[in-house]
Amino acid sequence: MIERRHTSQRMSKVVVHNGVAYLCGPVGARDTVTDQTQDCLSRIDALLTEAGSEREDTLQAVVWLADMADFDKMNAVWDAWVPTAALPARIATLVAPSPRSSVAIFWRVVRRRPCAVSRECRALRAMSITRSSASWACMRRKHTSFSQGHPWPVGAT
What is the pLDDT, as a whole number, of residue 77? Predict the structure, then answer.
């Protein structure tokens, strides 16, 4: 099952499939690169929350800069924001300038949080039990994968 949120005629801001959330690439809407980076990251925080995830669950981020001279300014904001115990894989690259922003950050993949009410779900995930076993344990509790944020979709094999 694929779940799409904030869908317009061109895109969805959040797409969830098989327990993985894919986020759009918000752009900064303020004047300086520092402010634009802060704006991008606050928008990503909101999308992460809606996807049932958080910064520590990020697997990969792609940062687009219009001018590599802004790299250090962007990094200063990034370093203050990103959890040092859970650093994602990251790419920072140069792109053609946008009329709207000098910075865009694209969150490629974020995994969902385990079910907060099911100790079995967390234990199975920690022990790397197969997807079918974990799904069976979750189904016994009659949870749905999206409302509880399971690491695997209910019923997956």
Answer: 95
* Length in residues, the chain: 157
The strand pairing partners of 92, in sequence order, are: 63
**Model confidence at 10, in pLDDT bands (50, 70, 90)?**
very high
CA atoms within 13 A on the CB side of 72: 1
Above 50 in pLDDT, residue 102?
A: yes
pLDDT for position 95: 84
Cβ proximity of 46 and 13 under 8 Å:
no
| 140-148 contacts, C-beta under 8 A, 24 or more apart | 141/115, 141/117, 143/115, 143/117, 143/118, 145/19, 146/3, 146/16, 146/52, 148/115, 148/116, 148/117, 148/118
CA distance 56 to 76: 19
10 CB burial (10 A radius; 0-12, 13-18, 19+): exposed
> Residue 77 in contact with residue 41, Cβ under 8 Å?
yes
Q: What is the pTM of this model?
A: 0.67
